[in-house]
């Protein structure tokens, strides 16, 4: 009860106060798709180049400039980026990390002080959650976190309780650390919705959901648009 009372009192909105608008950190051609204190998502079918699309977002944030059509502007004290991959081997994670560096115009054969890459394939969902939490709270100057494979932070993608728990964590982490989290999730095979209950919760709570699709006439091209709400 004591904790609940403290939370209740700290949650009161002070109507005489002024609250700052969430700082914008990611845009596409002038349209804001990411702010600090919020989270967003990329969804798409298998092999739609979701990870490549997110690589461009991370590269833009890393150079604090424009890559492809993504323009990033992180505050000076929030330039650190955490990239979490839950499903690929270290070999393939290294390829992604080097592609990000290459897209940002940086050397690809050495670590960069503002990019930390975690390969979490071998861990359980609980372990992945705890690792990501520790990284978020113990990394100074963190501004952007990418979770490539949020599906792997739950055992059952159709579990309402697991899904609500993970999405609640995203809301807590982004608010308390004033960071932006971008997640990646597969689409259902039969429609444009994000897969499972975790996808429904993600789509309902995310400030932006990007839909990555293969071009129907050229398999080497993917298009990105706002997912239908």
TrEMBL record:
Q: Which InterPro entries match?
A: P-loop_NTPase (IPR027417)
Gene3D superfamilies reported for this sequence = P-loop containing nucleotide triphosphate hydrolases (3.40.50.300)
Which Pfam families is this protein grouped with? AAA_25
Question: What is the protein's given name?
Answer: Mobilization protein
Tell me which species this is from. Tannerella sp. oral taxon BU063 isolate Cell 8/11
- Recite the lineage of the species: Bacteria, Pseudomonadati, Bacteroidota, Bacteroidia, Bacteroidales
């Amino acid at each position: 009860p004591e904790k609940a009372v403290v939370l209740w009192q700290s949650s009161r909105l002070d109507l005489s106060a002024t609250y700052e608008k969430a700082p914008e950190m990611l845009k596409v051609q002038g349209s804001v798709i990411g702010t600090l204190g919020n989270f967003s998502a990329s969804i798409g079918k298998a092999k739609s180049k979701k990870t490549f699309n997110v690589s461009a977002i991370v590269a833009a944030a890393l150079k604090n400039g424009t890559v492809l059509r993504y323009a990033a502007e992180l505050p000076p004290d929030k330039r650190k980026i955490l990239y979490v991959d839950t499903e690929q081997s270290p070999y393939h994670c290294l390829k992604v990390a080097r592609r990000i560096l290459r897209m940002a115009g940086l050397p690809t054969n050495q670590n960069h002080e503002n990019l930390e890459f975690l390969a979490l394939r071998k861990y359980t969902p609980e372990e992945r959650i705890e690792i990501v939490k520790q990284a978020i709270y113990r990394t100074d100057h963190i501004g952007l976190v990418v979770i490539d494979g949020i599906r792997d932070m739950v055992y059952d993608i159709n579990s309402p309780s697991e899904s609500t728990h993970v999405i609640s964590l995203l809301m807590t982490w982004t608010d308390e650390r004033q960071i932006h989290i971008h997640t990646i999730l597969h689409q259902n095979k039969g429609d444009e919705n994000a897969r499972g209950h975790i996808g429904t919760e993600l789509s309902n709570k995310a400030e932006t959901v990007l839909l990555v699709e293969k071009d129907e006439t050229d398999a080497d091209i993917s298009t990105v648009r706002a997912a239908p709400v």
